[in-house]
């Protein structure tokens, strides 16, 4: 046995427990869920096989398309909100001074709070009667801008984006700071010798070197946004009248509020397919960006 | 591959298999033996009396008392927050892992559990205590009965559509409590012009408008018989003009600005506090508001509150002297409970739903479906008023107590849409198709 194949065998053994757990708790449930999607099942009693009926109903249901549209808004807001803001903050806060550390912890803080707490805090900020936001608008003479932030379907999705962006900047900030710290100091020196400074250095040296981290952040951001559920569930519950429904809350309501387990399983399978397509699509786009 | 790696591999594999085996092993040791050799019975009990209101506290103290009095019966109690309770219960039902005893709703839930062979009748217990059984108000067991089998004894009565009003706000504005729909619209207009919220509503969870307002309002317009026919699709449809008219009445209320701003993003409790603070002149809410009011509102605030039924509608077919309401929850028993455990379970049921328990529950400002004389000094004045009201009017069905979960969900969301400006016709159509799909 050569040492190379021995190393490979060792890696395989090392991976095995994690792989088994992953298959057992992630892959198998996905397959099961896709399978349950073929049944008309209330959760109690017998399940009847109905072929692709659930899946066609998903595609035909206007509420599914509303939630997909809303969810795409969240994905766009997160990718173009969370990632750039985190990156800019990381570039500004990369030093280890006391002020920088303080601001960094402040930005990361919401991640430490439970999302139920965050949802309740923002629920009070947007509260139609006693909310700080409407109070502030009144105070600075913009009373006419006052809105029913969470129940007016024209603005509610945008109101929900703000806490979602605010809540999840933290982890990306940490990732980017780590990536920036990993740039070897020789690069800095070399850039200095070549006379690259300011924006020239940023775009030609720094950003290309953290590009891989940005790609990872975008993928995490897309898959995270497609799973978005907790904040919305606490703040609006997907309502009023489905106007802030997301894919996950649509699935949850069908499964656990009106007890259509089969249909809910079909919806989750569709969510997985959409997520995979989006993640693959974004990877493809960014790969092309590499070659340019 | 050399021997060493093969060994490591097989050990890891065996270990992970053993680990997974642990997860699925079914450990059901219900009976443990005490030192004396007497068999100790262990029962699991799930309830939703986890809040801070008086009823929940009373129920918890009844359970503690039972444990103290019965050292041979061990209760493994799980108190689950009310919002998540139904979901938890339905989830274990799907996995066929019901607790031995659990709080259960009459109507649709009882039917579903019975159809899934998850529960067993308690006729044996009821027949052995005739006096107790006869003490329940007429119709108490209807929602828990399938054929001749009775599956639970209710520990609560929930009128869902009481019209609460603030006496001093009505007096200050020279208004009478509305008896007809025109009075109602007039009162709304007057309060609105005085910058007082006419009706407090918290419809974020989407059921309050349906359960509290529409159930009674639609009954005024269509009559009870029409609704029961429409729900079973026996000669009546939700697209009938009468039902569309009742949606129109609700929409008129919304259009007249009867509810506070952002009512679709407030929850029921917030709306109750809003009313209790005197910021709104009226509130259409269920009996559950009483126990919340009792624990949060001040004595002066409570003295201002009155309660009555919803006003009549012009030319309506329903009896206006009625309240929509349901018999509340009771304890259900898993079909798997047998032998000594069953006897113990019967004892728990009697301890929590028997005459003494019903009396204590009533005194904690929670209406019960059982004949008890109310000692008015022990409850709040508004509770005493509602108690009188409930004993003097007839009860009509509540929409989500009769419709399937999917159809009720459609009504809930439809009403939110209606109050945001949707059209009654198109919402009626959606409800009708949800009922048909069943």
TrEMBL record, chain A:
The keyword Ribonucleoprotein does not apply. It is found in: Cell membrane. Keywords: Cell membrane, Membrane, Transmembrane, Transmembrane helix, Transport. It comes from Paenibacillus curdlanolyticus YK9. This is Binding-protein-dependent transport systems inner membrane component. One of its GO terms (cellular component) is plasma membrane. Residues 68-282 form the ABC transmembrane type-1 domain. The keyword Endoplasmic reticulum does not apply. PROSITE patterns: ABC_TM1. Gene3D superfamilies: MetI-like. InterPro entries: MetI-like, MetI-like_sf, UgpAE/MalFG_permease. One of its GO terms (biological process) is transmembrane transport. Belongs to the binding-protein-dependent transport system permease family.
TrEMBL record, chain B:
It comes from the Bacteria. It holds the Pfam family SBP_bac_1. The keyword Signal applies. The keyword Nucleus does not apply. Keywords: Signal. Residues 1-20 form the signal peptide. SUPFAM superfamilies: Periplasmic binding protein-like II. InterPro entries: Bact_solute-bd_prot1 (IPR050490), SBP (IPR006059). Coiled coil: none annotated. This is Extracellular solute-binding protein family 1. It comes from Paenibacillus curdlanolyticus YK9.
């Amino acid at each position: 046995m050569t040492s190379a194949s021995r190393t490979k065998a060792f890696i395989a053994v090392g991976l095995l427990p994690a792989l088994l757990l992953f298959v057992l708790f992630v892959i198998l449930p996905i397959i099961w869920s896709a399978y349950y999607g073929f049944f008309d099942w209330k959760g109690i009693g017998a399940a009847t096989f109905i072929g692709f009926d659930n899946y066609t109903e998903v595609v035909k249901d206007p509420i599914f398309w509303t939630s997909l549209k809303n969810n795409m808004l969240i994905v766009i807001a997160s990718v173009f909100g969370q990632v750039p803001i985190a990156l800019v903050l990381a570039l500004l806060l990369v030093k280890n001074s006391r002020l920088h550390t303080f601001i960094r912890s402040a930005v990361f803080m919401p991640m430490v709070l439970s999302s139920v707490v965050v949802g309740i805090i923002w629920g009070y900020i947007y509260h139609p009667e006693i909310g700080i936001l409407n109070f502030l608008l009144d105070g600075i003479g913009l009373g006419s801008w006052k809105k029913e932030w969470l129940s007016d379907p024209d603005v509610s999705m945008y109101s929900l984006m703000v806490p979602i962006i605010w809540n999840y900047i933290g982890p990306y900030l940490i990732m980017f700071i780590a990536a920036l710290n990993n740039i070897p100091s020789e690069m800095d020196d070399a850039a200095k010798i070549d006379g690259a400074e300011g924006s020239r250095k940023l775009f030609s040296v720094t950003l290309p070197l953290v590009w891989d981290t940005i790609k990872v952040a975008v993928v995490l951001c897309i898959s995270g946004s497609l799973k978005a559920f907790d904040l919305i569930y606490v703040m609006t519950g997907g309502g009023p009248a489905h106007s802030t429904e997301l894919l996950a809350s649509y699935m949850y309501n069908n499964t656990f509020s009106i007890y259509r387990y089969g249909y809910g399983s079909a919806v989750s399978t569709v969510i997985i397919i959409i997520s995979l397509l989006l993640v693959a699509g974004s990877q493809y786009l960014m790969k092309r960006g590499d070659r340019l | 591959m050399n021997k060493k790696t093969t060994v490591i591999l097989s050990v890891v594999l065996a270990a992970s298999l053993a680990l997974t085996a642990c997860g699925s092993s079914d450990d059901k040791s219900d009976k443990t033996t005490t030192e004396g050799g007497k068999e100790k019975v262990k029962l699991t009990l799930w309830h939703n009396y986890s809040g801070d209101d008086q009823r929940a506290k009373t129920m918890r103290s009844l359970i503690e008392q039972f444990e103290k009095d019965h050292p041979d019966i061990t209760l493994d109690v799980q108190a689950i927050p009310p919002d998540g309770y139904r979901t938890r219960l339905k989830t274990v039902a799907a996995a066929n892992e019901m607790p031995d005893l659990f709080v259960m709703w009459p109507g649709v839930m009882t039917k579903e559990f019975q159809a899934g062979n998850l529960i067993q009748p308690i006729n044996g217990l009821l027949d052995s205590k005739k006096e107790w059984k006869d003490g329940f108000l007429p119709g108490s067991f209807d929602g828990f009965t399938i054929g001749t089998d009775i599956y639970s004894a209710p520990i609560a009565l929930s009128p869902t559509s009481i019209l609460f009003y603030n006496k001093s706000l009505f007096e200050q504005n020279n208004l009478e409590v509305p008896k007809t729909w025109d009075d109602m619209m007039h009162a709304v207009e007057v309060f609105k012009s005085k910058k007082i919220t006419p009706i407090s509503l918290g419809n974020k969870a989407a059921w309050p408008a349906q359960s509290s307002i529409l159930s009674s309002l639609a009954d005024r317009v269509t009559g009870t018989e029409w609704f029961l026919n429409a729900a079973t699709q026996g000669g009546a449809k939700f697209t009938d003009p009468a039902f569309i008219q009742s949606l129109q009445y609700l929409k008129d209320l919304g259009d007249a600005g009867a509810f506070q701003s952002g009512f679709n993003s407030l929850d029921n409790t917030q709306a109750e506090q809003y009313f209790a603070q005197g910021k709104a002149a009226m509130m259409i809410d269920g009996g559950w508001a009483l126990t919340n009011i009792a624990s949060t509102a001040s004595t002066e605030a409570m003295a201002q509150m009155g309660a009555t039924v919803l006003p009549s509608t012009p030319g309506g077919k329903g009896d206006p002297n009625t309240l929509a309401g349901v018999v509340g929850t009771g304890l259900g028993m898993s079909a798997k409970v047998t032998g000594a455990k069953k006897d113990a379970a019967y004892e728990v049921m009697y301890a929590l739903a028997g005459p003494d328990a019903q009396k204590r529950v009533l005194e904690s400002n929670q209406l019960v479906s059982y004949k008890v004389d109310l000692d008015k000094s022990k409850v709040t004045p508004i509770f005493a008023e509602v108690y009188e009201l409930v004993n003097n009017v007839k009860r009509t069905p509540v929409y989500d107590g009769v419709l399937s979960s999917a159809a009720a969900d459609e009504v809930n969301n439809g009403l939110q849409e209606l109050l945001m400006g949707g059209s009654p016709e198109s919402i009626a159509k959606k409800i009708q198709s949800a009922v048909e799909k069943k």
